[in-house]
Amino acid sequence: MLTLALSKGRIFDDTLPLLQRAGIAVTEDPEASRKLILPTHRPDLRVVLVRASDVPTYVQHGGADFGVVGLDVLLEHSAAWGGGGLYRPLDLGIARCRMSVAARTDFDYPAAVRQGSRIRVATKYVQLARQHFADKGVHVDLIKLYGSMELAPLTGLADAIVDLVSTGSTLKANDLVEVEQIMPISARLIVNPAALKLKRDALRPLIDALAAACAEAAR
Ligand code: PRT
Ligand code: MG
Which protein residues touch ligand 1 with a CB less than 6 Å away? Predict the structure, then answer.
């Protein structure tokens, strides 16, 4: 049995067409069912639904053989827990966005950086943010949040945030502006190395089929 870890929402929605192109149909709709384990039409493949930030943990510790995870979540996980135990073969090119620094329209970010002031930055990506600002030599006090980072600058909790931006409409709706882009983000297929050895005959063709599916999607 092969187990694929996915998170509900955009990762699941964007992975489904790739699976389809690779000849795999998930036979139950996660939005319509409360099941956490979904069958596929292949008796040797099932999907487990976990929280986005839990996908690397499942794959690393063998709760799933492979999984799909945003680069943001993957890098944050690896910075905190080490990248060991994860084989990262494939950029799926889905769930694209970018990680950026954003601030209130009336906060002069470049001036604060130039003056070397301590900038209060709220984010759920504490490790990545710390790394980014350290590389740039910018002084920050990081504030860890678990949701709705956009609210932090509006309430005076922080001067700026590090968050994901896709269309930019969330920032706009909250009077925030992107002041720095940190990195482009897309989803990765990650694989448990032991599974890749022990279940190679079943797993390798699936990974290859997914690679072919996203190469085709990119054309
Ligand atoms: O909520 P939970 O903790 O369960 O997990 P999650 O929020 O990480 O899951 P989910 O499904 O929201 O996101 C899964 C993955 O999708 C992320 O890890 C990213 O790799 C990827 N992704 C792609 C995004 C976005 N685009 C995105 N726009 N994840 C989140 N957003 C959010 C962003 O945080 C901001 O609040 O959408 C808002 C901005 O969108 P725009 O279009 O208004 O700019
Ligand atoms: Mg979410």
Answer: 7, 9-11, 51-53, 70, 72-73, 95, 97, 163-170, 185, 187
Q: Tens digit of pLDDT for each residue in 146-203?
A: 999 999 999 999 999 999 999 999 999 999 999 999 999 999 999 999 999 999 999 9
Domains of the chain with CATH codes: 2-95+186-218 (3.40.190.10), 97-184 (3.40.190.10)
Query: How far is C-alpha 24 from the chain's CA centre?
Result: 23
Q: What is the model's pTM? A: 0.96
What pLDDT digit, counting tens, does each position of 108-128 carry?
Answer: 999 999 999 999 999 999 999
